[in-house]
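Example record used in the benchmark description.
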Amino acid sequence: MRYTTSSLEQLAMAILSGFGCSEPECRIVAGHLVKANLAGHDSHGIGMLPTYGKQVADGNLIPNQNLEVLSTSGAVTVVDAKRGFGHRMAIESLDIAIESCRTNKVAVLGLRNSGHVSRAGHYSEYCATKGLVSLHFVNVWGHAPLVAAHGSSEPSFSTNPISIGIPIDGQAKPMLDLATSTVAFGKVRVAYNRGEKVPLGWIIDDAGIATDDPSPIWLNRTGALTPFGNHKGSGLAIFVELLAGAIAGKETVATGNYIPNGVFNNMFSILIDPQAFDSQEQIEARVMEFYQSIKSSRPAHDQKTVLMPGEPEMSNRDDRTRNGIDVDRETINQIMDIGCEFGLQSPHLNDCLKTAT
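Model output (structure tokens):
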């Protein structure tokens, strides 16, 4: 079923309000989640709400938390989100780093102990609206690892995403947003909820053999996700874990501090004012010259056009804004169920939903 953007935002805000989030926090979190759906990243969209509800109920995700600045040293800022909603905590911490970048032309941010920050590409896009180049590295702790290192048959770290964006006329273009695993774990959830198999290469079972069945890893956490590109993705994931967990934060997945429904993020971000190097006009001209040189190259035999990083998200955003966002019935049911667990009424929640025409 395809739903309008505004109706999914209303549903998400109603659920988040039931969790105890303030109206401003509801707007930030709901906006982030629906933008992830619009970009085609359903793994990081409103389907995350049931997980957040379980974390709130367990006290592992705290609504309306206040960000604490732990230290500032030159261009480096370290903050503690104290397990607040990462969508708001990350933006507030980036606002601090952006002010530092205005002064120093570069800023390095360490965000610690945050609730799920969700789609990392959102933060490259946000920094680009401020005219800044940004790089973001996110590790995950609080639950057992999910991704097998290259050459291993058991999980050693999590999906450890990376996002990089360059500002062109206020947009991140190009914009890289990827998990260092072959796919984000949320894509396994989406496949399971839709009753679909996954492509071979996404998952290995507990014997280390490739499987197309998402059920064991989603339901029981047996088996592992694979790193993309074998040793290359595995190597990147290891350094994301070290930058975000060992340097910016105080927890890597090796700590073993596992908590039921625990999902906590540390984020290591680097912000750069490109005008420290040259005028914005000259930089944009060089970036777009290179951008267009790739776009104008001959497509592979099975491709209509050569896509740059960030273009699939742009295309999805255009399509889903016009035609609605496809959300499977199982995901909607799970969202309704978590709302009811927090005392919300199903008829009220159903009233939020409007299908796209």
